[in-house]
Amino acid sequence: MGKISEAQAFLKAIGMPERQQAPICALSLLALAHIRPDDKWCQANNEWIRIHDIIQFVNVNYDVDYAENSRETFRKQAMHHFRNAALIEDNGKATNSPNYRYRLTQEAVHLLQNFHTDLWKKSLKEFTDVHESLISMYASKKNVRKMPVMINERAYTFSPGKHNALQKAILEEFAPRFAPGALCLYVGDTTNKNSVENQSLLNQLGITLTGHDKLPDVILYRKDVDWIYFVEAVTSVGPMSPKRLKELEAMTQQVTSGVIYVTAFPDVTTYKRFVADLAWETEVWIADEPDHMIHLNGNRFMGPR
Predict the structure, then answer these.
(1) How far apart are CA 205 and CA 209, in angstroms?
(2) What confidence tens digit (pLDDT) does each residue in 58-83 have?
(3) Distances from the Cα of 152 to the Cαs of 100, 158, 259, 263, in angstroms?
(4) In this predicted model, what pLDDT tens digit does every residue of 243-270 receive, in sequence order?
(5) Which residue among 132, 133, 231, 305 has the highest number of C-beta atoms inside a 10 angstrom radius?
(6) Which fold has domain 147-296?
(7) Long-range Cβ contact pairs of 269-277 (< 8 A, separation 24 or more)
(8) CATH class of 3-145
(9) What value does the mean pLDDT take over residues 220-228?
């Protein structure tokens, strides 16, 4: 048997569904274990690896030709199911981060190292006996890495990452200080778009959304003063530039409430990178200095303190 067939046999032995015994899944397993055609299974390891690296590994070593745009196929057909089966874990980065990586779990790599040895049957039984608890354990690790966040007095979780950390700060630090009592009408998680969206109230306020609208990261509404806050969370791109301001103004032509445009930055260093891009008549909030605002709006706040 060649290594691909052996990998398929391994996946069948541990109870993976037939679709997850397909060649693409076997190749993914071989790449995760860093096993080449002439390697022995005892050489399996679990170094961190990206899907890009998996594609490169199998193309170079197994005479296949997967294109870069097949990453989503690898993710959906192999990696998603491997993680649910506690064969792999990720490193907790945001899924859209270039540093997002996978590796085999310690239990899976140990089982692979014993494949085709005298210890195989014993190792397989030990793995099977604890498999359900492994699934629970690795699912718990994934959940622990998520960030808890309170939105409209309800508990949610965000996936990890700088952008979501800043969104969490907007909701939990900016809003109580500068939008007290505000209701969050929209916030999107980087891995779960539209995690909170009050479509009904948005429509009532004159904001009609379609799937093509480029929403700000956070929309807040203060009913007591009838103010809407459009907040962009900026860690690498997307401040309230003149162009962005025009886009949002076009989206709010039917709005009669007061509209406030805010760019939120995690720190002063990031703010300095974008200061020349910011539009007049907007606001700036910096998470590292949560008690203060920067107002880019003429003489409205001019006067003695």
Answers:
(1) 11
(2) 999 999 999 989 999 999 999 989 98
(3) 30, 15, 20, 21
(4) 999 989 888 889 999 999 999 999 999 9
(5) 231
(6) Trna Endonuclease; Chain: A, domain 1 (3.40.1350)
(7) 270/234, 270/235, 274/234, 274/239, 277/239, 277/241
(8) mainly alpha
(9) 95
CB 16 within 8 A of CB 80: no
Q: Which residue has the tokens 């096993």?
A: 35
CB 93 within 8 A of CB 22: no
Query: What pLDDT is stored for residue 210 in this prediction?
Result: 62
Question: What six digits make up the tokens of 109?
Answer: 């790599």
- CA dist 86 and 67 (Å) reads 27
Beta carbons of 186 and 218 less than 8 angstroms apart: yes
Between CA 84 and CA 79 the distance in angstroms is: 9
What are the sequence ranges of the domains in the chain? 3-145, 147-296
> What span, in angstroms and rounded, lies between the C-alpha atoms of 88 and 94?
16
Whole-angstrom distance, CA of residue 55 vs CA of residue 197: 37
Triad 187, 193, 198: Cα angle to 5°: 45
What's the pLDDT band for 1 if we cut at 50, 70, 90?
low
Q: Are 293 and 284 spatial neighbours (Cβ–Cβ below 8 Å)? A: yes
Prediction pTM value: 0.56
DSSP code, position 181: T
* Residue (of 128, 138, 129) closest to 102 by Cα position: 138
Specify the 3-state DSSP secondary structure of 201: helix
Paired sense of beta strands 183-189 and 218-222, if any: antiparallel
* CA–CA distance, 146 with 157 (Å, rounded to integer): 6
Q: Kindly state the tokens that stand for 103.
A: 């590796």
The dihedral built from the CA positions of residue 59, 78, 193 and 290, taken in this order, carries a sign that is: negative
CB 220 within 8 A of CB 184: yes
Secondary structure (DSSP) of 70-118: GHHHHIIIIIHHHHHTTSEEE-S--TTSTT--EEE-HHHHHHHHTTTST
